Amino acid sequence: MAKDPLAEAGLHFDALNKLRVLEPEVGQKTTELKEECKDFVDKMGQFQKIVGGLIELVDELAKEAETEKMKAIGARNLLKSVAKQREAQQQQLQALLAEKMMQLERYRIEYEALSKVEAEQNEFIDQFILQK
Length: 132
What we know:
By secondary structure, the protein is mainly alpha-helical. The protein has two helices and two strands. The protein has helices spanning 5-8, 24-131, and strands at 12-13, 19-20.
């Protein structure tokens, strides 16, 4: 069998009788590889869309978590401030109670003194009346 001089020069005819530089098998494998690459690029595009959606979802969840965290911190701080206000109010009421107790003691002593003066004056009046 005679060797094809075109094949020796690296030139080949395809199924449509077009002159090609590549061998038909290499051309077919190149076409298959091109199609596989296109499929791979399409799948990567789909994957990127899915991952993009997942990233957006995670970002939204992170924002919601951060918002809830801030709400919880605010509630905790409010609770602490309310507790401090109650403690301060309790101290004020205790001071007021102590002040009122001191005032009551002063009034009791004043009452006893006035009662003693009244008794003395009544005794004086009784003696004055008896002398007449």
